[in-house]
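[09:14] KT: can someone run the structure on this one? pasting the chain below
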Amino acid sequence: MDRSRLQDLLARERAEAVRRCPRSKDAYGRADHLFGRVPMTWMNKTAGPFPRYLATARGARVTDIDGHEYIDFCLGDTGAMAGHSPTVVAEAVRHRFADQGGATAMLPTEDAELVGAELTRRFGLARWSFSLTATDANRWAIRLARAVTGRPKILVNSYSYHGSVDESLIVVGPDGNGTARPGNVGAPCDVTLTSRVAEFNDLDQLERELAHGDVAAVLMEPALTNIGIVLPEPGYLAGVRELTRRHGTLLINDETHTFSAGPGGCTAAWGLEPDLLTIGKAIGGGIPAGAYGLSAELAERLLERDDLDLVDMGGVGGTLAGNALSMAAVRATLEHVLTDEAFARMDELSQRFEAGVRAGIEAHALPWSVSRLGARTEYRFADPAPRTGTESAAAADPDLEDFLHLYLANRGILLTPFHNMALMCPDTTEQDVDAHTELFAAALSELAG
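[09:31] RB: done, structure tokens below
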């Protein structure tokens, strides 16, 4: 690839973003009272010189304050996998808050049991508790795992993503040993004191780490996502389950992003048997919500312990977790929006998206690859596709990624700013997918000159 041409094209698209979005540019310039000029600092992860500001969002469409409409394949990085403001969820939230009254009252609602039963149907875990984010679900699952095993350490995969959980910010270093993930902000201690790490798809490394006998749980995504999709090789996940059982280690499946694999995530789609499962983002239809499930045996072991404070200040739970508003939103989302039928349609659209990307790559004989996980598809600047998180991180090309994201955004299509991820929702159409295929091909032709 002609890197000088890439730089010229990137500069052109940045200038076009400034020209198209003067109101967003002005809003960003006036945000003097915000840390990093945005509500959350990750919002600065944008291909342009400033983020586009949201005006409206509905279904698979968003509009910025400059009046431009976008086909949204970002969908809140799975937070809006149900689509933006699904009518049935909006009505459930309105009814709970306006008609019945109360978002949080420190009292349970009947919705919670119905949600728990549906999560059991989908994922197989027998008992459920709730949070406001998957990060908190992971934190609390980790505490429960340490409590029940008496072991101090958590093992994760290199370059996995589990929110801002301290124990997860560890990667495999050049020497093969664990080291802090670059950029870790204000770590409370050396991460190797709390964590172990193994490469995804590497059972030998996993076994070496588990052999120390100090790992309470393996916390993992069944497929890596936030570093680009890295799919499990045949036999890998079965090997993980066998090794964790052999070494007396619990297995926590984080399905927050891998929920895209189907109504019960990878756990149901691939017949997995975790001891705990965590999920967030998508289940609330846009309202903050998360959950963690436990096997019946594990739940019983924890509840029979009289030395664990599970109801007050023991470190598990929060006063807003499982609140009435969130439970109403989750119930409506699971019952009426992210249904089995909706997932089947989303999967078909994702296959269509994948085929369009693959055709563009092959037309220019690019050394790239495309991977799909149900309703989620990503293209990578590597061929073959990376098989570990470290390989995936090494395949990054920030300038190329920025050009593609800006090229698409300037022409009405949004991808997830953290990577080249496109997610389908129930409102996505074949025309939306084909619009991306056409623009993706045009962008590649520009790069080819």
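[09:33] KT: thanks! Residues 278 and 292 are 4 Å apart (CA to CA).
[09:34] RB: yep, looked fine to me
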